[in-house]
Amino acid sequence: MPQENEIDGRTLRNDRREILNEEEEDTLGNGEADARKRLEDANGMPELKDEEVQVNDEEVCLDLGEPSPEVMEYARRELGETEDAKCRTLHEFRDMIFERGECLPHRMDNDFLIRFLRTRNFNVHRAHRLIVNYYNFKEEHPEIHQDVNPVEMKHIGEDDVMTVPAYRTQCGRRMMIYRLGNWDPRKYSVEEIFKATVIILELGVLEPRAQILGGVAIFDLEGITMGHAWTITPQVASMVMALMVSAFPMKTHAIHILHQSWVFDVIFSVFKPLLDVRMQNKIFFHGSNMESLHKHISPSHLPKKYGGTREELAYYKWIDSLSKVPQIVKEMNMVGYIVPEEIQKLVQEAAED
């Protein structure tokens, strides 16, 4: 046991160093004015207007098309994305992956590589570190990546542990909502929640505008107990931070904490060593004050449970709907997920029609 604790502590310190390196490079590379601008953005300043958000946003679908001119302007302004930058950095990035040989990506096409460049503001060296971390994370945690059948993850939705609204925030960002108080650790392990999270992240990152804008997480902690707290080990905290910061090509724009209690303080003490100032500035605590949440996310873009006007959507409905789209099924197969034969058959028939 002492040896395991020693390993967890060392992992925690290494992950904190990795996160700090990413954040410090981001700040140093863009100057104090840009750093201040990003901190303001992290505090909820909208970049897009309501009318720029997709109108038919109740439909369960992924926006796989080219981002709107407004989103591309945001990409140019905030990420430094231009056609010239894309062509140049994609070439450099691909060469760096081949030359260094620190990972063996399952694909090397532009559509795949661009998500890593966008997440690291087209800094090739940082994008390379990210893709290496991405594959290392997969290798280190096969229990949440290998032999996973997304269709079999329905229990996460049935228990209302997590959900992804079909609609986005007023800024055009996807939301992931967790209700950890609904999770019974005796029923299934925390790895199941990681599996469901990674599936949604892999689906979400297929959207070019999500690669540019990032996403928002809401943690509703109503009903959490010490039984939940005991599951949050340093290793679990390390995995959470890896997905949010250092090992997945999607930016976390903001994290909103609802209904926190003294139990949350116990859980947060495990995460705190991993958080630098910039990451802390992305976390907002609202308690039971929904008006505080509404300062960041408009009620017209929130479920009724949180003082909004919208309906909810069960997690499994996402999987059911998206598993009928040929391109998405192909992408999920490439990542390594198991797609049942009956779904592959239906998709093939749809493609033939």
Low-confidence stretches: 1-17, 23-55
Overall CATH architecture of the largest domain: 3-Layer(aba) Sandwich
Structural class designation: alpha/beta
CATH homologous superfamily caption of the largest domain: CRAL-TRIO lipid binding domain
Helices, by number, come to 16
How big is the Rg? 20 Å
> How are the strands of the biggest sheet laid out side by side?
1-2-3-4-5
**Beta-strand percent range:** 5-15%
Q: What series of H and E elements makes up the topology?
A: HHHHHHEEHHEHHEHHEHHHH
Helix content: 40-55%
CATH fold naming of the largest domain:
Phosphatidylinositol Transfer Protein Sec14p
Average pLDDT figure: 81
Beginning-to-end CA distance, first to last residue: 59 Å
Can you tell me the number of structural domains? Answer: 2
Q: Quick one: how many beta strands? A: 5
Description:
By secondary structure, the protein is α/β, with parallel strands linked by helices. It has 16 helices and five strands. It has helices spanning 2-42, 69-79, 83-100, 110-119, 124-140, 154-158, 190-204, 208-213, 226-229, 234-246, 262-271, 277-280, 290-294, 315-322, 326-335, 341-352, and strands at residues 162-163, 174-179, 215-220, 252-258, 283-287. Helix 3 crosses helix 4 and helix 3 (83-100) crosses helix 5. The model is unreliable at 1-17 and 23-55 (pLDDT under 50).
